[in-house]
Design goal:
By secondary structure, the protein is mostly helical. The chain has two helices and no strands. This is DUF3188 domain-containing protein.
């Protein structure tokens, strides 16, 4: 199995969007009441958090690999 580069920002974005979908699916099914305008802060906040996580992990990854050479 080929290894791939981990992308925690994409993971955070996916989790937030799935959570938003589950909340509204529960509302549509009658399990609970969710205001319609709650999706805007959930999605935008989740995407901002995902961007911050991706930025920070990218900086940490670059910082770790800058001191290494091709033979390490």
């Amino acid at each position: 199995m080929l290894r791939h580069e981990p992308r925690p920002g994409t993971l955070v974005a996916g989790v937030v969007l799935v959570l938003t979908g589950v909340l509204y699916a529960g509302d549509a099914g009658g399990a609970w009441e969710i205001p319609w305008f709650l999706a805007i802060p959930l999605v935008t906040g989740g995407l901002c958090l995902a961007g911050a996580v991706a930025f920070l992990t990218g900086r940490l990854r670059r910082r770790r690999t800058t001191g290494r050479t091709a033979t390490d």
